[in-house]
Amino acid sequence: MKKKTFVMVIIALVAVSFSSMAQRVDRTNFKAGVHLGIPFGDISDLSNFELGLDLGYHWGVSELIDAGIATGFMNAFINNDTADFGPVVVEGNFPNIQYVPVAGAFRIYPTYDFKIGADVGYAVGINDGNTGGLYVRPIIGANLNSTTEINISYVKISDDYDFSMAALGILFLF
């Protein structure tokens, strides 16, 4: 219940803070895409790859800056029934590790075709035993054309274990 209330408060704050920006700037973008991640850290003992969906809505704050909201779905596929955490080996039937991030997003555009930025918020744990945690995702992207972006990112979720990964994604702008 606390997790659900926390997520709703974040969504409300982000929506209220960006509603005034949307009134001042006429450029908006809905973004949807997918990414493929390679886990490392503690999670690499359980999973070899992650697949995710990215959704976002950005408002143009200026010619050089966008701000918005980001969400999606991340699923780290478990590769076996044994996890090796150094001296401790754990056996069992592990579920896929799943998160739904709820984040604020910002992008800086040094040029029209290149962008850097980050998504920062909370990743809600979906599978049993997953408590979720602070979500940070720095991103570097490049426009392939006016409606398609390719990006690389680093994802870090501060949970009971180290959920870190490098990801390659493609986004479509609507």
UniProtKB/TrEMBL annotation:
<keyword id="KW-0732">Signal</keyword>
<protein>
    <recommendedName>
        <fullName>Outer membrane protein beta-barrel domain-containing protein</fullName>
    </recommendedName>
</protein>
<feature type="signal peptide">
    <location>
        <begin position="1"/>
        <end position="22"/>
    </location>
</feature>
